From TrEMBL:
This is Chloride channel protein. Keywords: Chloride, Chloride channel, Ion channel, Ion transport, Membrane, Transmembrane, Transmembrane helix, Transport. It comes from the Bacteria. It is found in: Membrane. It comes from Mycolicibacterium crocinum. Its main location: membrane.
Length: 481
């Protein structure tokens, strides 16, 4: 059958050149291009989030949460200057965010990474440019006003959307398109967290629960490294949390503690996924439109924050405080103990209700305070072989909790090590991560519901339900199907 003219000429000479190129040349060009957009997208979103946070929570609410090391550090406000304003600000940010999503790009609802993973498996050409732009603005409003969400979802969708745009612009094969979108997910998350190695591995592992896409790994090094170079050259190359536990030396006597961290982190990660998607299901059954339900969720988060302010926004600054003994002891014990559950509830209300933002970041906070709570209790009890400070437990908790429930243990372990500059913790943390993952894979739970089991099942699904054929791509924002 003769090839349709629109397909044959897609992308002009450059498109033909890419389609005819070998593996190395093709992915060197595409990898660098996606990496540049991932890095720039991460910068734009970071600046947008910083500005909205300063204006909404800072100027209007009179509240400044503590910041992570790379964000400027500092312990933040001692309390709320205008406590009555906090619920209203979170409500208003969620309301405007939900209105933009509902009217302009309904697919930008939620945490974003799942929709990008779904595009990998069903149609890598399907991510609209409009959805990416709406996601950027709506997520900045949600998080900047105090909604509990992470900044990785929007950055992943920006670069994944660019990979999708390249796929339809140059009429790349479905196989190449799947790799391009996967590279976008990994490089976007790796850039915003300053974790290029973890981002590259994440690109190859995040789309499956029990498998690894080796075709995305080597291009991922190029893409994620480029994204990190762009992001770091503008905003700095410091690890997000600085160099935490840099003088730690592995002690075999602590293996039992790492095993306990793994068991507890698996339970907390399991609860995170079940409560989050339980909130999603409940929201769908409740009356009300797609604008009012996220707004009510935001109001509830604001009210909860009056009791537990640590749930507001990303929460990375609170993790920063928890990495030191003095910092953790400034937080009341009861808050340290309930914060993992409180953050799960707040994230479920902010994003599970239909708001916009990432769920990776909250998972890091949840895992970090799981480790912090265990250290605090062990320290109070005078238990043997407990490190002098909480940093090691916090790092291992971050790795084990989200690495297991995201079904990306290696990628998350590397990312957290890069975010904390703490590769010395990895030998012990491997025990925690391994135990947590072995527990989680015995359940059907994943924080990313669009993941497929492995390459074999994903391939069989594509044969059974093939993606729509793209006949033309004259409008990059609205591909013709």
């Amino acid at each position: 059958m003769a090839e349709a003219p629109g397909v044959r000429k897609a992308g002009g000479r450059l498109g033909q050149f890419l389609r005819d190129s070998g593996y190395l040349r093709k992915w060197l060009i595409l990898g660098v291009a996606i990496g540049i957009i991932a890095g720039l997208g991460a910068v734009v979103f970071y600046l947008a989030l910083d500005y909205t946070g300063r204006v909404l929570l800072g100027y209007l609410g009179g509240y400044h949460p503590p910041q992570a090391y790379a964000d400027g550090g500092g312990t933040g406000s001692a309390g709320f200057v205008r406590p009555w304003a906090i619920p209203l600000i979170v409500f208003g940010g969620a309301l405007v965010s939900a209105f933009l999503v509902a009217k302009l790009a309904p697919e930008a609802e939620g945490h974003g990474t799942d929709s990008a993973i779904e595009a990998v498996h069903t149609d890598p050409r399907s991510i609209r440019v409009r959805a990416v732009l709406v996601k950027l603005v709506s997520s900045a409003l949600t998080i900047g006003s105090g909604g509990s969400a992470g900044r990785e979802g929007p950055t992943a969708q920006i670069s994944a959307g660019f990979g999708s745009l390249l796929t339809r612009m140059f009429d790349l094969s479905d196989a190449d398109g799947r790799v391009a979108v996967s590279l976008g997910i990994g490089s976007g998350i790796g850039a915003i967290f300053g974790a290029p190695l973890g981002g590259a591995v994440l690109a190859a592992s995040i789309v499956y629960r029990e498998d690894f896409d080796y075709k995305a790994l080597i291009p991922g090094f190029v893409t994620s490294g480029t994204a990190y170079a762009i992001y770091g050259s503008i905003l700095g190359f410091e690890p997000m949390f600085g160099f935490v536990a840099h003088d730690y030396q592995f002690d075999p006597a602590q293996l039992g503690w790492f095993a306990l961290i793994g068991i507890v982190s698996a339970a907390v990660g399991y609860a995170y996924a079940r409560i989050f998607y339980g909130a999603v299901a409940l929201t769908h059954r409740l009356p009300g439109g797609k604008v009012i339900k996220p707004a009510i969720g935001g109001l509830l988060v604001g009210l909860l924050a009056l009791v537990i302010p640590q749930i507001l926004s990303s929460g990375y600054g609170w993790v920063q405080l928890a990495t030191t003994r003095d910092g953790l002891l400034t937080i009341p014990l009861w808050i340290v103990l309930v914060l993992p559950l409180a953050k799960i509830v707040a994230t479920s209300l902010s994003i599970g209700s239909g708001g916009s933002g990432g769920i990776f970041g909250p998972g890091i906070v949840i895992g970090g305070f799981t480790g912090a709570a265990l250290w605090r209790l062990a320290d109070l009890a005078g238990a043997p072989a407990v490190p002098g400070g909480p940093a090691v437990f916090v790092i291992a908790g971050m790795m084990a909790c989200f690495g297991s429930v995201a079904h990306a243990p290696l990628a998350v372990m590397l990312m957290v090590a890069e975010m904390t500059g703490s590769f010395a913790v990895i030998p012990g943390a491997m025990i925690a991560v391994g135990i947590a993952y072995l527990i989680i894979i015995r359940t059907p739970v994943s924080i990313y519901q669009s993941q497929r089991l492995n390459r074999e099942t994903a391939g069989a699904e594509r044969v059974t339900v093939p993606a729509p054929e793209i006949l033309a791509a004259d409008d990059d924002d609205e591909p013709v199907k």
